Amino acid sequence: MTEYPNFSGSSQDSKTEYILSNVAEVVERILTFVPTKSLLRIASVCRLWRNCARRVLRTQQKLAWVSACGPSDTEAHALCSTLAEEVENVFLLPKTVLAMVDSEAFNGQAYCYRQTKKSRHSPDTVEELNLLFPKGCDVMGIATPGIVLTPSGSSSNPPQEHQEGEAGYAIMFPSMEGVHIKPFHFCKKNISPSALEEAGLVDNPELRVVLMFVYEAYKSGAARFLNQVLEPLAKTKALIAGGLVENVFSPPRECCGPGAYGVVGLALSGPRVQGASVLLEQDISNPKEAEATISRLKAAKIPERNTLGFMFACVGRGQNYYNNQSNVEADAFRKVFPNTPLFGLFGNGEIGCDRIVKDDYTLCDADTDSLQHDYTTVMTLVHLG
Q: Which three-class secondary structure state does DSSP give residue 230?
């Protein structure tokens, strides 16, 4: 028969101390209300708390994000400043981070602080960004002409298109059962069939979604290089979406020098990953047509939970394309998917196509030529189980 200590003469503090030192169920329940960074610190208190913290971390399967817009009060970009504060309050252990910022502010082209010409895209800034996340976390940082984001706090917040001004977001992906996210980076020096296979982009039956971003795409030879990447991908059953961006600031490009072209991205594999995309063609130039096209994504019947929307648009679209109406495509997305957060970019070209899987039928037009576009928008749903 189990004997319990006699608390009759003890203080309430002693009872609390006993419970927090011995009753795992109570400790574990309490720790579910503790942000992850604090949870990792708490894990060093004792063996019981460490084991409870580990079990709680394994249950944190829902992705999170931090967004920022408007001028920063510091030398750092608005996203970096906001991340430094908000990352303390997230309830997940990031395994992969996709960060995007507007290239004008981040590259320091239009900002001058303390009478210096220091760029926000400096080694110090990038290092500080990486230090915000756990060791071993893969951080992919991209600078692009315009940003599409959903404000932090709730997936039902209205998404915003930022073609001008300071803006950025960081999506944090935890380790998730049935989902494998692998970053990749290719330049002309390391592209090869074996490199594509190692990245999980070919000969991978579980590949479901590829998000890819091409930098310095206007350089001579870049178009041929991009075809080298897209040709084998077009033969797979994976959803392919992305855009042409200004540059990549993380991970460091050690294999090629400044100004060289290349591509980075995320390969998403696993039985719990789903994706669908539609292409808003050049002739779609009013809100009703945009909403009707985006509505076709509903046919894929993708669950709402742990689903992200991605919008990869041409810099030539946006407000000017819709007769001076702002936020048209983001608003149209929210009408169709009011509880799905939307992120993305305005870039120098779009990658993607119509791809909707419904039951055993796949609507897909994915040869190499049909994947590359101008003056369009690729609207995508990605579900992570």
A: helix
Which among 87, 181, 65, 168 has a CA at the least distance from the CA of 134? 87
Residue with tokens 């592209």: 191
Q: What is the pTM of this model?
A: 0.85
pLDDT in tens, 43-86: 788 888 888 877 877 776 688 999 999 887 777 788 988 888 88
pLDDT value at residue 121: 52
Give every strand in the sheet of 94-102, ordered side by side: 64-69, 167-174, 94-102, 138-144, 247-250
Residues 6+ apart with CB under 8 A from 47: none
Which residues have C-beta within 8 Å of that of residue 80, sequence separation ≥ 6?
Answer: 72, 120, 125, 128, 129
Amino acid code (one letter) for 104: E
> Which residue is listed with tokens 């001008």?
164
Tokens representing 153 are 């706090």
Distance, CA of 297 to CA of 310 (rounded, Å): 12
What is the SS3 assignment for 196?
helix
d(CA 350, CA 370): 11
CA distance 330 to 320: 15
Please state, in angstroms and rounded to a whole number, the distance separating the CA atoms of residues 311 and 72: 25
Contact 164, 238 (CB under 8 A): no
pLDDT of 207 above 60: yes
Task: Give CA–CA dist 329/306, Å, rounded.
Answer: 22
Helices marked H in 184-327: 193-198, 222-234, 287-295
Of the candidates 100, 95, 103, the one whose C-alpha atom is nearest the C-alpha of residue 119 is 103
